[in-house]
Amino acid sequence: MKCALIIPPWLPEEIFASKTAGSQINYWQPLGTLYVAAALQRAGHEVRFYNGAFMTHQQIMAGVAEFKPRFVGLYSTTFGWQKAQAMAEALRSVQGDFFLAVGGPFPIAVQEQCLVECPQLDAVVTGEGEETVVELLERLAGGDFAGVLGLIWRRGEEVVKNPPRPLITDLDALPFPARELLGDAAGQYVPPPATYKRKPVAVIITSRGCNRHCLYCFQIDKSRKSGIRYRSVDNVMAEIRHCLAQGYREIKFIDDTLAADYDRAMELARRIKEEKLDFTWFASAVVNQVDEKLLRAFKEAGCWAILFGAESGVQKDLNTIHKGITLAQTRKAVAAAKRVGITVYTPFLFGIPGQTFADGLKSIEFALEIDPDIANFHALTPFPGTELWDNLEKYGTVSHDLADYTYQGAAFIPYSMTREEINELRRIAFKRFYSRPKFLWRRLLALRSVNDLKAAWEGVKSLFWLHFGGRIFGRR
After folding, report:
1. DSSP per residue over 51-74, as a string?
2. Is the overall model pTM greater than 0.85, yes or no?
3. pLDDT-derived band at 431, boundaries 50, 70, 90
């Protein structure tokens, strides 16, 4: 059966401040969609992928019209929901004879609300899609989807909500993401400037789920009872070799924390080093799950950078968001990574419930103190499906414009702060962190490649606008 998987079109300026987008823009390989594509291919279906990051609305419409799929799957984040609705309406207007489903974080969170708001949709996939979509297509000819777990669908005028599908426990049984569907665009999928060493960059996830309870984090398993589901190290190594055979030269591991199982992380690093594979890599970890021994093993295996979610320089704020770490642990982890020669990235959040403008200034001072190589300063965002979203009245007020749900739009305003204060804190933080002579000198000495020069140029332009551009962050 012909299947089209679509990410609706979007522009960088719709997510990032237009003056600084060049130094922030990133294009991730859409692993969720590519996993579903691989499952469909294994079931014998013909799949085409249309990514609105690199295609216009007209190009996608023309491609779908030429392909004439029987099944169309749309992907939607919170920010992208209005775009998914518009795409669904447009598709129906030119070709009506196909089954149209939507999946992704927003549909998983709000479920049947999607069918209410978008009459063009036939179904919503409410969890991991690999098994659900394959089973849906097996039933498509008959038109009856009773018993397809993880699906909400229309039976005439009735909306039927099937029971949820259990999370996939044997992740090794899944096919590798169908990266070949990226085609010639594969080289365009790169993280933000200065966050990769080599191109093309492949994205790999070695586990699913999380056993932590951060206030702002979206997980399919809201209770966290299923914990973390791990792929075997053998399976991960096989995918690494598969990516290298496809021509990739850097890998970004996007697990919530690659070090949640310390021994497994150490074994993965050992295996990569032992096989002498030619690639560089980037990972994320929680500061209380690493030590210098593990970080050194990462470095010796080719890891050049690591992200630690610092989030705040005020312990009260960390406790509020249930981060489960201390400032001392962040200091220790950042220092250890720098000692072994790993580049350190630390994101911070403004707009935490109960956070004041003075607290935000303390976070900026903490960022300057621990001195990571790169810091980012986001607005806390209450994505549907998170604890923050479920308790908004307790914590603050929220924007009803889904276009604000991008980490940049200050969609959430705690009772202790204003939107203007959040945006001002972000401006101050970026300006102070990136204007320091110490930072600028370090970046100058680190220039090694054309990519480094491009990243530096984008950073210079962003810094100019932070100093002289007036109001950079805020509503578009």
Report:
1. ETTTS-HHHHHHHHHHH--SEEEE
2. yes
3. very high
